[in-house]
TrEMBL record:
Record protein name field: Polyphosphate kinase 2 family protein
Top-rank lineage group of the source organism: Bacteria
Family: Belongs to the polyphosphate kinase 2 (PPK2) family. Class I subfamily.
Record keywords: Kinase, Transferase
Domain called Polyphosphate kinase-2-related: residue spans: 30-267
Positions in coiled-coil regions: none
GO-annotated biological processes: polyphosphate metabolic process
Claim: Kinase is one of the keywords in the record: yes
Molecular-function GO terms, alphabetical: polyphosphate kinase activity
Amino acid sequence: MKKDILKDLLAKPGKQYSVSDFDPSFTGEVSKQDAKDQLAQDVEKLSELQSMLYAQDRYSILIIFQAMDAAGKDGTIKHVMSGINPQGCQVFSFKQPSAEELDHDYLWRINRCLPERGRIGIFNRSHYEDVLIAKVHPEIILSGKLPGIETVKDIDPDFWKRRYRQINDFERYLTENGTVVLKFFLNVSKAEQKKRFMERLDDKAKNWKFSSADVKERQFWDEYMKAYADVLTETSTELAPWYVIPADNKWFMRYAVGWIICDRMKQLDLHYPKLSEEGLRKLEECKKSVSDINF
């Protein structure tokens, strides 16, 4: 992917955004075949980079996917990460909080699932649910039993400002301690979402993917777009910017995500650890010992 295409997908920090600023059908004049070829190369490269990430044991990678229903989160994870060693990768999908989770702050369950050094962590939905679905349905906040929040009327604009600040502080803390945070908003159009819902209804092999709750949430499309716009505006930072990935064409979406992950990991100067002189000497001794063994 060319850098001029990449800048069209980046939500630059410090700007006021609307989701309509980004075209969900954008392909940057990249052909479908070129995108598939590049993705294949990136999948292979990711395998190599992951191996060095694990061996170096200095950084961890946190990849966050947020999107409306049917945008393609699962498929993107499946295709882009297909070459990754499962031992070095963890995938978590955050659903409705449990009773135990609600008895802690909203970042508690996120902290528990963060990747260790040397590993790649993938969040299918994340702490951003607490400023997306919770903003569209603020009654969800009440279940958190927060001090001073007794009714929905208590959830004012300052509440959301504080929450955005908390998330930015959290991601800064992670970044400064060796976790690279990559955030992807898979931007699907309302028309394309309807098409994919119909495919799920018409294809028996895809019926299991459909939920009546998806249709209910679709009724709040405009509210969700406003919530996503606020997230892009308030939480795209220099350390952890948002990438708005066009999701109407799955082949381009997967290509873009794969390229961005590869490019960011290349910037880390990952390499296999080098042995000290003492380590090399012991290695030679081991080689000699093994060569002297009669099998």
